[in-house]
Inverse folding.
């Protein structure tokens, strides 16, 4: 066995296991972990690695041996299995064998997909609009039926909506980022699809005339948010829909969800696949938004899940990349029949880091033959996009949304509160020096070296990786304030894009990469020549940060770079190695 997983924590195991490519060896590692600490995160990590090297295996039923396969392996093997009889046999085999709930759900889900794709004569199955209670009178909990009952038939969808969060009376930065990104996306969208029509013609423009272009719609909900209407238009919105009410000064789940959903559906309800009621609105003529963006803040995460569920669609959370393109899909759940392909246009591709720590996933929200999923929704990690320069000359429409808010929506009130320290903002500096677990030999001295290097620049700040925040390091009081969570950089921390990013003693897990990958120049210092951060650094210095950082500090102060550069082949003395510059490659970025 290449390594013993019980000797590493999850952050250390990720870089170590990336070189193991033998599925049998990975399975041995998995069994060792299960027999030892059996940490769910580690089990998921190893299973995802196994999945990477078994995804191209044939999925014939005869090759599926459930008793020797993990749930991840079973899920992979089922992807190309379309025979209902074989799937039923596998389900019975699992029930009479290990009887694992996860495996049974995978087989049952595949069986449902295959049986639901075609009738026996090859015709598409008819839509069953009966309520769950009518379809399953024998069940005590019929609402748990898997089939959705609120989806629309031939629904009309247009525009990209952006929920613009405010805090302490001001637009949060990520709201501005999303408006700029939405403007970019819809400008490109209109250049590609404008005027083509997609079954949603009849859009009503700002002047009341029909038009082909789709728009960016900013949503403002709260107390005294009307003042931001002109600002969101200047930042890229075509329409600002505003609901202002003093009772909304604080975010509350019920009223905010009801208001945003009422805006999105224009007051209509969706019953049995049909639109019921609703308002005539001069600025729009469609059932629901085509796309909906939310901030991945504490409140934004809550609201995005609630709204998308109420609008009967899905959500890709914590995204750091967005683009719109077509996608060819062969999954029979989406195409309606096994063996066929279908091209989906106007698909919002929503990129987010994998839980495995190695790759990005691209999430798609696609229609089924029996139902449509709109809005295609995503929440966006703050700092993922640039804040656009406002254009005060931009014109748009401001819509005042009206809805009676029942008192019972405000059953919870805040009597007294204290405002927490807003923490440290690392995003506005020219230089960021970040340190990770590599300071473990002398944590306090390692942090001092990072501070000294930052002090050598005119505008620099110090950040840390998650390993420092969650680790059990002991720091002296004079540097301890620099090790707290408010300085963490990464998926669950801050996202920065300075002119220069120095990463010292950081391995480069994707969670950290998300937080700094847009930096103009990345310099990494690490003793491990195979550290993952090397793959997306501009300059990599192989060496001990306790030796390298002081020399970098001297060079900055002197205004000269004292290091020589060497190719990989020429560097043989084990000292600091600069050069072998590797600009970040595609695949992890738009």
């Amino acid at each position: 066995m290449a390594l013993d997983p019980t000797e590493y924590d999850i952050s250390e195991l990720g870089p170590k296991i990336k070189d193991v490519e033998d599925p049998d060896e990975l399975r041995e590692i998995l069994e060792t972990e299960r027999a030892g600490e059996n940490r769910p995160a580690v089990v998921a990590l190893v299973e995802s690695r196994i999945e990477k090297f078994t995804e191209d295996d044939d999925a014939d039923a005869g090759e599926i041996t459930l008793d020797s396969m993990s749930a991840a392996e079973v899920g992979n093997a089922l992807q190309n299995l379309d025979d209902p009889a074989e799937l039923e046999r596998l389900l019975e085999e699992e029930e009479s064998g290990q009887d694992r709930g996860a495996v049974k759900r995978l087989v049952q889900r595949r069986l449902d997909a295959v049986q639901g794709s075609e009738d026996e004569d090859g015709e598409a199955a008819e839509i069953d609009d009966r309520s769950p209670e009518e379809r399953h009178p024998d069940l005590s909990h019929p609402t748990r039926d898997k089939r959705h009952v609120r989806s629309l038939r031939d629904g009309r969808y247009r525009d990209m909506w952006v929920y613009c969060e405010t805090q302490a009376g001001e637009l949060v930065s990520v709201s501005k980022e999303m408006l700029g990104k939405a403007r970019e996306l819809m400008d490109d969208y209109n250049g590609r699809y404008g005027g083509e029509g997609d079954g949603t013609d009849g859009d009503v423009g700002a002047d009341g005339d029909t038009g082909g272009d789709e728009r960016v719609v900013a949503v403002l909900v709260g107390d005294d948010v009307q003042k931001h209407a002109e600002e969101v238009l200047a930042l890229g919105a075509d329409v600002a829909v505003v609901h202002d009410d003093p009772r909304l000064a604080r975010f509350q789940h019920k009223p905010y969800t009801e208001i945003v959903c009422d805006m999105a559906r224009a007051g209509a309800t969706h019953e049995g696949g049909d639109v019921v009621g609703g308002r005539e609105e001069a600025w729009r003529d469609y059932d629901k938004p085509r796309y909906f963006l939310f901030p991945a803040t504490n409140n934004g995460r809550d609201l995005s899940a609630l709204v998308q569920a109420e609008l009967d669609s899905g959500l890709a959370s914590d995204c750091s990349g967005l683009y719109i393109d077509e996608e060819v899909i062969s999954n029979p759940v989406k195409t309606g029949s096994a063996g066929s392909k279908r091209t989906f246009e106007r698909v919002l591709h929503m990129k987010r880091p994998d839980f495995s720590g190695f790759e990005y996933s691209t999430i798609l929200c696609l229609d089924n033959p029996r139902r449509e999923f709109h809005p295609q929704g995503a929440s966006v990690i703050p700092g993922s996009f640039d804040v656009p320069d406002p254009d005060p000359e931009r014109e748009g429409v401001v819509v005042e949304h009206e809805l009676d808010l029942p008192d019972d929506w405000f059953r919870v009130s805040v009597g007294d509160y204290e405002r927490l320290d807003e923490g440290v903002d690392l995003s506005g500096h020219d230089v960021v020096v970040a340190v990770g677990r590599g300071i473990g030999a002398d944590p306090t001295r390692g942090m001092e070296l990072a501070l000294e290097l930052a002090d050598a620049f005119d505008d620099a700040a110090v950040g840390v990786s998650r390993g420092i925040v969650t680790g059990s390091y002991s720091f002296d009081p004079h540097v301890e304030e620099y090790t707290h969570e408010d300085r963490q950089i990464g998926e669950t921390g801050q996202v920065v894009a300075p002119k220069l990013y120095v990463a010292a003693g950081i391995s480069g897990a994707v969670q950290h990469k998300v937080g700094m990958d847009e930096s103009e120049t990345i310099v990494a210092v690490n003793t491990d020549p195979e550290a993952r951060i090397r793959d997306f650094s501009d300059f990599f210095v192989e060496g001990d940060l306790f030796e390298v950082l002081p020399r970098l500090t001297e060079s900055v102060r002197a205004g000269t770079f004292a290091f020589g550069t060497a190719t990989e082949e020429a560097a043989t003395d084990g000292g600091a190695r600069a050069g072998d510059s590797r600009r970040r490659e595609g695949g992890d970025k738009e």
Summary: The first helix runs from residue 10 to 17.
